[in-house]
Design brief:
Blueprint (H helix, E strand, L loop, with lengths): L6 E6 L5 H12 L5 E5 L5 H16 L2 H25 L3 E5 L2 H10 L4 H7 L8 E6 L2 H9 L8 H16 L4 E4 L4 H19 L1
Parallel strand pairs: 1-3, 1-4, 2-3, 4-5
Helix pairs in contact: 1-8, 2-3, 3-4, 4-7, 6-7
């Protein structure tokens, strides 16, 4: 029977490059182990609902609704995709996880303790990494995509929450302001060092 796999989540502001970096990480990990990339919102039924309702909730200022939708999708995502892969001994890299809810809905004014409570059933990642990029930088990138998250003050608040969890030791920070290749190297080395410790 395979030993339990490793669950890694990659976090960051919109436009920080985390999706690219998470996929590059999985590509490198696959050279030595079974690894899969996944993301939130998920591809499940609740994830589809989240994608459909998210902008509506955002425009209406319904941060609590957003948080509940993401929490529900998270549990379905875990049950249908993450946990089965971990049970087979695979390394799972998730593009966003609980810390995204804490950062974004927390920045919208929700109580962080409440967000943590509605996510109590979500398994804790073995390693959670925050790719830290200056808010001014991501705003410049997002303007090209006409993203709903373009407001600089919003990004500053989101980053502040992320850094709170870095300071508490629940997230590990990587400097995402470096060139893409260097960020990829730093991310892979951090994961490689972690895997060597738990082997």
């Amino acid at each position: 029977m395979a030993s339990r796999g490793i669950f890694i989540c990659v976090e960051g502001l919109d436009g920080c490059g985390k999706t690219t970096q998470a996929k590059l990480l999985v590509k490198r990990l696959k050279k030595t182990r079974e690894a899969i990339y996944t993301a939130e919102p998920s591809k499940g039924e609740i994830g589809k609902l989240v994608k459909k309702c998210y902008l509506h909730a955002k425009k209406r200022g319904l941060a609590a609704v957003e948080a509940l939708l993401f929490a529900a999708d998270r549990l379905e995502h875990l049950k249908n995709e993450v946990l089965p892969a971990l049970d087979k001994g695979k390394t799972v890299v998730s593009d966003r996880y609980v810390f995204s809810s804490l950062a974004y809905q927390g920045a919208a004014g929700l109580d962080l303790d409440w967000i943590e409570r509605i996510n109590e059933q979500a398994v804790r990642p073995d390693l959670a990494i925050f790719i830290d990029v200056e808010p001014e930088t991501v705003i410049h990138r997002l303007k090209r995509k006409r993203s709903v998250m373009e407001n600089l003050q919003t990004q500053l608040r989101v980053r502040k929450v992320y850094l709170k969890y870095v300071e508490s030791g629940k997230l590990v920070r990587i400097d995402g302001n470096k060139p893409k290749r260097e960020v990829s190297r730093d991310l892979f080395n951090m994961v490689k060092d972690y895997l060597a410790k738990v082997r």
